[in-house]
Amino acid sequence: MPSPEFKLLLFGHDTVQCAYYLRADDGSGIDFERLAIDREELRLSKLKEPKVIQLGSEAFLLEPNGSRSGYPFIINNPAFRIEFGEYNVPSFFVTFRSEALWRVGTQALHQRFMSWAESLGFRPDKPEGLSRVDFTFDYGLPVIDFDEDSFVSLSNKDAKHRENGKVQTFQFGRDDIVLRIYNKVAEIKQQSNKVWFYELWGRDSDVWRIEWQVRKDVLRRFGIRTFKDLDDQQGDLLRYLAGEHTTLRVKAEDGNRSRWPLHPLWVDLQEQIKRFNCTGIYREVSEMGVLNERLMRMAISINGYLKRIAAVRCLQHNEDFMPHREALVHLQRMLAQVHDPLDWQQDVQKRIKHMQLGRW
Question: Element (H or E) spanning 174, and its range?
């Protein structure tokens, strides 16, 4: 049973990357010539906003440039980032989006991609090949009673990151296996802005993530090549990662750290992994909750600008203070001066489409 000081809140895959080997039947597939024209027009226009396109059963945002790995086309929507080309092998390289993974799960996203490919006339030429999977365990952890010396790891590389004198991240490894134990709430506030995790956790503080980033060579060692393999074999991989590759210990007098007792957090982690095949994605993201959270963040930002308006008006009129209501009146007057009804309608409709496609 978990210790009262911590509790597993969530398990799942936060990043999945996969190569797909697909071929198009005669008379079907993608019009690469038309797509190249669209991409070039977009690149030459130097617009900051990507072009909305419809390919098969999905809508995407087309990027103006190809990928560093040699794919000429990149398209995005809330579920996928897809790199592809007419003559590339593998033909498609797909990164599944974090929020979509937490919303519907890995297997459902794989099936959605295959359905999209079939809508364009593509069929598998050979099985897909997973190239990266990030396994994450999120714990409610109000007290950190360990440091970098509490870990026993096969990794030769390690790092620690602090913020205001407090540890925020422990990292082990750099290549095929990277383990990070970090303050996920701090990471959301400072980098990712994935505030929808608060709803999943049922809290917005004291959450630490144990995350393994595992790449292709290690996945292959455990027989994980396809999504079916991932379902069948990931328990064995995780038992290795949490039992042999790296463990968290309670410091003791013994000079051999591998004989130190396991930390209760790691004991619980290993117990959770034993039941892994029965865990799966057991909570869903509420889309309405995500939208409400984003609206609130916009309100916070607007309120900050409103304070600036009040300050500027006070300086202009040599006053010491302006009430909130009066600042709102000034804001409404200025908005009326810049408002264009036609421009408003077009821009709102464009933003709706972009938000539906995941571009905030």
Answer: none
User: Using 50, 70 and 90 to split pLDDT, how confident is the model at 286?
Assistant: low
Directed axis angle between helix 324-338 and helix 287-316, to 10°?
100
Give the gyration radius of the chain's Cα atoms. Answer: 25
Beta strands of the chain (E only): which ranges?
7-24, 51-55, 58-62, 73-76, 80-84, 92-96, 122-140, 151-153, 158-163, 166-172, 177-183, 207-215, 246-248
Q: Is the peptide bond before 127 cis (omega within 30 degrees of 0)?
A: no
Q: What is the pLDDT of residues 22-64, one digit of tens each?
A: 998 776 789 999 999 999 988 888 776 788 999 999 999 999 9
170 in Cβ contact with 155 (< 8 Å) = no
Q: Collect all residues with Cβ–Cβ distance below 8 Å to 45 and sequence separation of at least 6.
A: none
pLDDT confidence band for 296 (50 / 70 / 90)? confident
Contact partners, residue 185, CB within 8 Å, separation at least 6: 204, 205, 206, 207
Residue 3: per-residue pLDDT: 46
Of 317, 322, 319, nearest to 307 by C-alpha is 322
Distances (CA, A) of 243 to 2, 223, 230: 18, 18, 19
Judge whether residue 178 has pLDDT over 50: yes
- 86: amino acid identity, one letter: E
| Among 323, 18, 13, 271, residue whose Cα is nearest residue 138 | 13
Encode 256-273: b = buried (16+ Cβ within 10 Å), e = exposed.
eeeebebbebbbbbeebb
How confident is the model at residue 293, as a pLDDT? 67
